[in-house]
Design brief:
single chain; alpha+beta; 2 domains; 3 strands; about 40% helix
Length: about 90
């Protein structure tokens, strides 16, 4: 893996902390999952996504810091990111 994202580094740390074997999957011409993990000896492929703060996130954080009430439906951002990664 050429350049790891913060989320990939954290994922690797999480696996190591729980004793779960975690190996990056080499990238090829097409889309591939990011990791092969083996919790309890079961082989599982994983796609790790990082969602960086956007303007709405920064605005919400500013609102939270001002002690005002706020709310947002976060799965919409996650859903779009996952759909974009699907082959």
């Amino acid at each position: 893996m050429a350049t790891r994202t913060i989320s990939e580094s954290l994922f690797e740390q999480l696996c190591a902390a729980h004793g779960v074997p975690c190996d990056p999957i080499p990238t090829g011409a097409g889309r591939t999952p990011d990791y092969l993990i083996q919790p309890g000896g079961v082989r599982v492929t994983c796609e790790v996504k990082q969602i960086d703060p956007n303007d709405a996130d920064r605005e919400e954080l500013q609102t939270i810091r001002s002690s005002e009430a706020t709310g947002r439906y976060v799965p919409n951002r996650l859903r779009a990111k996952l759909k974009a990664s699907h082959p």
